[in-house]
């Protein structure tokens, strides 16, 4: 049986022994990276510099919310605006594996720049077991290249440390709870490292990002409101996806031709398998009406995904 107290004690001692100089950590504000940051901060304190990169593929207002939350935890935080670099890197790219690898490489190059500025020898990631399992290697088939594993470039200018590498999501949550993280962090729904880039099927342009940001915000708000009102139990993960096709619609008496948004919600424990959430139709209708009204110039249709994992994955790319 996994014992988070014992894990924290042993890993803290291991990190303190290994890292005797400056280190940086890539921090998104999600469960994995935040738990890693607090754990490493406990071990090496002022020698840790936390780096939050704004890729342009974060959710609506997420950079502002996460940076405030991370500073409240007492972490030494640096926020880097790299939106233009990521948009330029992914311009015209639509193939999922290529997206992930380009994002992974650019992340590393930015962290290398910061490491040189901070005179840091070590780079810490919030990698967990499903990341390297699904990225393949050896006898394992590749499901998708996680940007922090299969998306890493061959040449890297620092040593990578992954304190949560052998843990699953449910175990990470337990570690975060014991470390004193509030429930809104250690029970936070997962968010992919490449961000909304893997929730846009097609080119990840700034215009498409704005559409999926707004749709995701609506899905989250409506499901969380329904959960607070005891209409449903909050799913493990829930979000919106922008499909690469359009459909005819009607706005008033005028023909429209807009994008299609898919709503995705699943139940899982560790992310290795999942079943779709049976959301009542009246809640789905509220989501659909809000999305099509709010994004009436861009979206003509909303559909709901009823695929389990397997055969589907939780994220779309």
The CATH class of the largest domain is identified as Alpha Beta
How many individual helices? Answer: 10
| Oligomeric form | single chain
CATH topology category name of the largest domain: Rossmann fold
| Named CATH architecture of the largest domain | 3-Layer(aba) Sandwich
Q: Which terms summarize this structure?
A:
GMP Synthetase, Chain A, domain 3, five-stranded parallel beta sheet, alpha/beta, Rossmann fold, 10 helices, 317 residues, single chain
What this model shows, in words?
The protein is an alpha/beta fold. The protein has 2 domains: 4-189, HUPs (Rossmann fold, 3-Layer(aba) Sandwich), CATH 3.40.50.620; 199-304, GMP Synthetase, Chain A, domain 3 (2-Layer Sandwich), CATH 3.30.300.10. The chain is 40% helix and 19% strand. It has 10 helices and 9 strands. It has helices spanning 4-18, 31-44, 62-72, 83-89, 96-118, 129-134, 169-178, 183-186, 206-228, 281-294, and strands at residues 23-26, 48-54, 77-81, 122-124, 159-161, 237-251, 254-267, 275-276, 299-304. The strands form 2 sheets. The protein has a 5-stranded parallel sheet, with helices on both faces. Strands 6, 7, 8 and 9 form a 4-stranded mixed sheet that branches. β7 and β8 (275-276) form a beta hairpin. α2 crosses α7 (169-178) and α9 (206-228) packs antiparallel against α10. The longest helix is centred in the middle third of the chain and has 23 residues, at 96-118. The protein is globular. The two termini are 33 Å apart. The mean pLDDT is 92.
């Amino acid at each position: 049986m996994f014992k988070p107290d014992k894990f924290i004690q042993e890993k803290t001692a291991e990190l303190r022994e290994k890292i005797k100089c400056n280190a940086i950590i890539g921090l998104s504000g999600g469960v994995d990276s935040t738990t890693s940051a607090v754990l490493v901060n406990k071990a090496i304190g002022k020698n840790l510099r936390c780096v939050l990169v704004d890729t342009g593929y974060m959710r609506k207002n997420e950079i502002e919310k996460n940076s405030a939350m991370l500073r409240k935890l007492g972490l030494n935080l640096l926020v880097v605006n790299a939106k233009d670099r990521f948009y330029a890197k992914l311009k015209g790219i639509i193939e999922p594996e290529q997206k992930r690898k380009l994002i992974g490489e650019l992340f590393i190059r930015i962290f290398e720049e910061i490491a040189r500025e901070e005179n840091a020898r070590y780079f810490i990631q919030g990698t967990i077991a499903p990341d390297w399992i699904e990225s393949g290697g050896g006898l394992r088939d590749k499901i998708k290249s996680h940007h922090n594993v299969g998306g890493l470039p061959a040449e890297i200018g620092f040593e990578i440390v992954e304190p949560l590498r052998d843990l699953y999501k449910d175990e990470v949550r337990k570690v975060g709870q014991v470390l004193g993280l509030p429930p809104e962090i250690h029970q936070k729904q997962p968010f992919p490292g490449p961000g909304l880039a893997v929730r846009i099927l097609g080119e990840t342009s700034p215009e498409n990002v704005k559409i999926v940001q707004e749709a995701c915000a609506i899905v989250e708000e409506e499901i969380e409101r329904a959960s607070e009102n005891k209409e449903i139990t909050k799913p493990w993960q829930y979000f919106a996806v922008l499909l690469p096709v359009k459909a005819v619609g009607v706005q008033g008496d005028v023909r429209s031709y807009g994008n299609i948004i898919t709503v995705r919600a699943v139940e899982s424990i560790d992310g290795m398998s999942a079943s779709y959430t049976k959301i009542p139709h009246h809640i789905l209708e509220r989501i659909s009406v809000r999305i099509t009204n709010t994004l009436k110039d861009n979206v003509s249709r909303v559909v709901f995904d009823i695929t389990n994992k397997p055969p589907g994955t939780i994220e779309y790319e």
